[in-house]
C-alpha cells in the first residue's frame, strides 16, 4: 500500500526503512501469489493497475478489520467503549436521533455515537465498505453481505391532495394528479411506481427532489401532492397540509436495522444495536411517530 501511496518503490522503501531491492522482491512475490500484475512500472515510477487498486482497497479493509478484532479482545465487556457510526436516511434520523443519543449517553457513557445521514440508496454500499458500522434502512434492499432485521412497518400517506384530509385515499385517485416525488434511485419511488403500473394509474410527476424537506416545501407551494411516510413530516400530521392514508392498495415499507456480516461485532457495536432496536420498538407504541407499527413476527416465531 505504501508503494501505491508514494508512487515509487524507492520512496516507499525509504518510508518503510527497508532496502529497495528487498521491497522490489516482496512486490514481485505478491504478484506471483495473486497471479497477476499489481503495479505498472516505468522510468517515472509505478502506478497501480486496476487489479492493484482493488487489491490495495481490500488490503486496507482487512487491516481495519484486524485492528477491530484486536480492539474487541481489549474491550471491557461490562462497560463497552468506542466509536460507532450509525448510517441513516434523514427522515429516520429525525425520529431517532434524540432518543437514541440520550439512551447511549445514559447507559454507555464510554461510547461515542456518530450519526451519518445519507440517501437510502447509498447506505448498503457504505455499510459493506465499512464507512458506517450499522444503519437504519427504509424500504426493501438487496441484502447480500448484510444482516437485515425488519423492526417496524411504516405506512405511506398522500400529502397535499386537495379535498383529501384526515381519512383515506385510493391509489386510483392519483391518476393524472400533479405529483412531487423522490428522485430515482429511491426505494419509496420504486414501490410507488410499481404499484401504479400494476393498477394502470398514471400520475403526472411534475417535479422530482432528493430531499424530503424540499418535497414538502414544494407541496406547500402548491406545485403538487406527494406520497410520504409520516417520518418525513416530523412524525405527526402538519396542520397546514391535507394528509390521508394511501389505500387500495395500502402501501408500506419496512424500517430495518442492518449490519455487515463480515464485519467484527464489537461489544460497543452490539450495545448500540440493542439500544437502537429498543428505541425503534418504543416508536411502535408511542405517539410521536404516527403510521408505524411493529413488524409482523414470522408464523414460526408466533407458534414457538
From TrEMBL:
Domain of life: Bacteria
Region forming the signal peptide: none
Keyword Transcription regulation: yes
GO molecular function: DNA binding; DNA-binding transcription factor activity
UniProt entry keywords in alphabetical sequence: Activator, DNA-binding, Transcription, Transcription regulation
Matches recorded under PANTHER family: NITROGEN ASSIMILATION REGULATORY PROTEIN NAC, TRANSCRIPTIONAL REGULATORY PROTEIN NAC-RELATED
Protein name: LysR family transcriptional regulator
Species name: Ramlibacter agri
Lineage of the species this protein comes from: Bacteria, Pseudomonadati, Pseudomonadota, Betaproteobacteria, Burkholderiales
Amino acid at each position: 500500500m505504501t508503494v501505491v501511496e508514494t508512487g515509487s518503490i524507492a520512496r516507499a522503501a525509504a518510508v518503510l526503512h527497508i532496502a529497495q531491492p528487498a521491497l522490489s522482491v516482496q512486490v514481485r512475490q505478491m504478484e506471483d501469489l495473486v497471479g497477476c500484475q499489481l503495479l505498472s512500472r516505468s522510468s517515472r515510477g509505478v502506478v497501480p493497475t486496476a487489479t492493484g487498486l482493488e487489491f490495495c482497497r481490500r488490503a486496507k479493509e482487512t487491516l481495519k478489520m484486524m485492528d477491530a478484532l484486536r480492539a474487541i479482545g481489549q474491550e471491557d465487556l461490562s462497560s463497552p467503549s468506542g466509536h460507532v457510526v450509525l448510517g441513516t436516511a434523514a427522515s429516520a434520523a429525525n425520529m431517532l436521533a434524540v432518543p437514541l443519543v440520550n439512551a447511549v449517553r445514559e447507559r454507555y457513557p464510554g461510547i461515542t455515537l456518530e450519526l451519518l445521514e445519507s440517501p437510502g440508496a447509498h447506505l448498503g454500499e457504505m455499510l459493506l465498505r465499512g464507512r458506517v458500522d450499522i444503519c437504519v434502512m427504509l424500504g426493501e434492499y438487496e441484502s447480500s453481505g448484510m444482516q437485515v432485521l425488519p423492526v417496524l412497518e411504516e405506512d405511506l400517506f398522500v400529502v397535499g391532495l386537495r379535498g383529501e384530509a384526515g381519512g383515506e385515499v385510493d391509489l386510483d385517485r392519483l391518476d393524472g394528479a400533479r405529483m412531487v416525488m423522490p428522485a430515482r434511485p429511491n426505494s419509496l419511488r420504486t414501490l410507488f411506481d410499481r404499484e401504479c403500473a400494476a393498477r394502470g394509474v398514471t400520475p403526472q410527476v411534475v417535479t422530482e427532489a432528493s430531499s424530503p424537506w424540499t418535497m414538502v416545501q414544494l407541496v406547500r407551494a402548491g406545485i403538487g401532492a406527494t406520497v410520504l411516510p409520516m417520518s418525513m413530516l416530523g412524525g405527526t400530521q402538519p396542520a397546514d397540509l391535507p394528509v390521508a392514508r394511501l389505500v387500495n392498495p395500502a402501501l408500506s415499507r419496512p424500517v430495518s436495522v442492518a449490519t455487515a456480516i463480515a464485519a467484527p461485532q464489537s461489544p460497543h457495536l452490539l450495545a448500540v444495536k440493542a439500544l437502537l432496536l429498543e428505541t425503534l420498538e418504543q416508536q411502535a407504541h408511542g405517539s410521536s411517530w404516527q403510521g408505524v407499527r411493529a413488524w409482523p413476527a414470522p408464523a414460526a416465531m408466533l407458534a414457538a
